[in-house]
């Protein structure tokens, strides 16, 4: 098998209180540790911890996509209905194209965990060669939405969104990503 390419992944934790030191940020560590378990490729992380300010979020997303060359950018936080929750607005403002399925599937998955899943306005978009996905702010929601729902035997009940990420990035012309099946299986349709 050919050597897997190194991929650059941008991680953005968006929280007024974590970014100002009121509490310790758990978003970036949760994102990093899940991805380290799930992805077989060597990964370089580029991380930002920022407040819920639309202009700051937009600048961070642009920098990670355009200057840092991140094939994938995951945000956590600021997707709800509170006045300072502006992550979806910032993400849509930098988008070239919207990928509605990611938000739809995340809300499906999340409904298995909390009835308030429908309060997350999370979106998925493409900017240039980067796929940008919003995850909810609660650190436990990171594994829930990426990995999906499994039964007691470990079989998948509802697919996590990461099952679709490697093929999406491949279709976008990005690097080939492989995952560890014990965490998540990357789905690729069979070639004819
Ligand atoms: N980065 C984080 N680190 C640790 N816990 C977090 C983080 N972000 C959110 N949480 C937890 O998840 C809850 C919901 O997240 P949400 O993004 O709605 O935050 P918030 O209530 O708007 O406040 P803030 O932006 O100051 O984190 C928070 O109240 C907090 O308990
Ligand atoms: N998987 C999952 N999704 C979730 C949650 C959760 O705990 N787990 N919390 C919900 C709640 S309570 C809110 S308010 C919205 C928005 O969260 P955010 O503003 O922290 O992004 O995400 C929802 N989606």
From TrEMBL:
Residue stretches spanning the membrane: none
UniProt entry keywords in alphabetical sequence: ATP-binding, Molybdenum cofactor biosynthesis, Nucleotide-binding, Nucleotidyltransferase, Transferase
Reaction catalysed by this enzyme: molybdopterin + ATP + H(+) = adenylyl-molybdopterin + diphosphate
Gene3D superfamilies: MoaB/Mog-like domain
Pathways involved: Cofactor biosynthesis; molybdopterin biosynthesis
Reported function: Catalyzes the adenylation of molybdopterin as part of the biosynthesis of the molybdenum-cofactor.
Enzyme class, first EC level, given as a word: transferase
Entry EC number(s): 2.7.7.75
Organism: Brachymonas denitrificans DSM 15123
Protein name: Molybdopterin adenylyltransferase
Single GO biological process annotation from the record: Mo-molybdopterin cofactor biosynthetic process
MoaB/Mog domain sequence ranges: 10-156
MF GO annotations: ATP binding; molybdopterin adenylyltransferase activity
InterPro entries: MoaB/Mog-like_dom_sf, MoaB/Mog_dom, MoCF_biosynth_CS, MPT_Adenylyltrnsfr/MoaC-Rel
């Amino acid at each position: 098998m050919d050597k897997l390419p190194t991929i650059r992944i941008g991680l953005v934790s968006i929280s007024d209180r974590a970014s100002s030191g009121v509490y310790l940020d758990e978003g970036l560590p949760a994102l990093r540790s899940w991805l380290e378990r799930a992805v077989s490729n060597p990964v370089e992380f580029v991380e930002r911890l920022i407040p819920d300010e639309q202009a700051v979020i937009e600048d961070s997303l642009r920098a990670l996509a355009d200057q840092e060359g991140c094939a994938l950018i995951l945000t956590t936080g600021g997707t709800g209905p509170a006045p300072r929750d502006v992550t979806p607005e910032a993400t849509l403002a930098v988008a070239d194209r919207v990928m509605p399925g990611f938000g739809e599937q995340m809300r499906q998955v999340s409904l298995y965990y909390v009835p308030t899943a429908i309060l997350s306005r999370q979106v998925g978009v493409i900017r240039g060669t980067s796929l940008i996905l919003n995850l909810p702010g609660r650190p436990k929601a990171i594994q829930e939405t990426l990995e999906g729902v499994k039964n007691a035997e470990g079989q998948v009940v509802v697919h996590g969104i990461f099952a679709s990420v490697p093929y999406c990035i491949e279709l976008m012309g990005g690097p080939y990503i492989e995952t560890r099946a014990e965490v998540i299986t990357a789905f690729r349709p069979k070639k004819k």
